[in-house]
Amino acid sequence: AQSVTQLGSHVSVSEGALVLLRCNYSSSVPPYLFWYVQYPNQGLQLLLKYTSAATLVKGINGFEAEFKKSETSFHLTKPSAHMSDAAEYFCAVRFNNAGNMLTFGGGTRLMVKP
Amino acid sequence: DTGVSQDPRHKITKRGQNVTFRCDPISEHNRLYWYRQTLGQGPEFLTYFQNEAQLEKSRLLSDRFSAERPKGSFSTLEIQRTEQGDSAMYLCASSPDRGGLRNQPQHFGDGTRLSIL
User: Fold this and answer.
1) Checking CA distances to A49, which of A4, B6, B17, B104 falls within 20 to 30 Å?
2) Measured CA angle at B50 (ends A91, B80), to 5 deg
3) From the CA of B11, how many Å to the nearest CA of chain A?
4) Vertex B50, ends B49 and B54: CA angle to 5°?
5) What is the pLDDT of residues B42-79, one digit of tens each?
6) Which residues touch A22 (CB under 8 Å, ≥6 apart)?
7) Is B107 at the interface with chain A, CB within 8 A?
8) Whole-angstrom Cα distance, residue B99 to residue B55?
9) What sign has the CA pseudo-torsion B91, B97, B103, B107?
10) Of all helices (H) and strands (E), which one includes residue A38?
11) Separation of alpha carbons A38 and A57, rounded Å
């Protein structure tokens, strides 16, 4: 079955430190990839999407993600964490044989320590 | 662009009651999606419309769940005879149909949180 795995349900970093949130998918054919952020009691906000034009994708709020086909990964990074980055982050995949539905990972809660 | 709007934001009801949620998509978006999100989990796809046509409904959780989009604009999701396990956040999303491009992101509303007493 096609799946999306986010390693680490909770990640804690200090303010100013590097943020790395991991996402792996199971598919032999590169799918369409997205990262979303969710603040408490809100819906999901798009951070970035993979377009196949470039393997390194830049998004909003200083986040970026790198697509690595050989590793079936799409990890999210940010060079320097801010307190306002504390939220839940979801990797989402539109697999090629799954119509228009998105399959989400279980999410990673990012905590930022002062 | 006023975003995806969902109503109500919160719904508390007794087990066995029927509930209906409404979603108004971004005006130029002809695709509309419903997801369910339980505590600590990622959203789970339920169903999808293109204009008024419901193109995917096999993922609806049971025959107690149904969705409509009668005029291709707003949509409703109904749950009949609610059960404790239906307690969750119900999210609606919309996206444009741009020449079959498959990397169009889905834009989400703030959801309706359902609590079953």
Assistant:
1) B6
2) 80
3) 14
4) 40
5) 999 999 999 999 988 888 888 999 999 998 899 999 99
6) A6, A7, A8, A73, A75, A108
7) yes
8) 17
9) negative
10) strand A32-38
11) 20
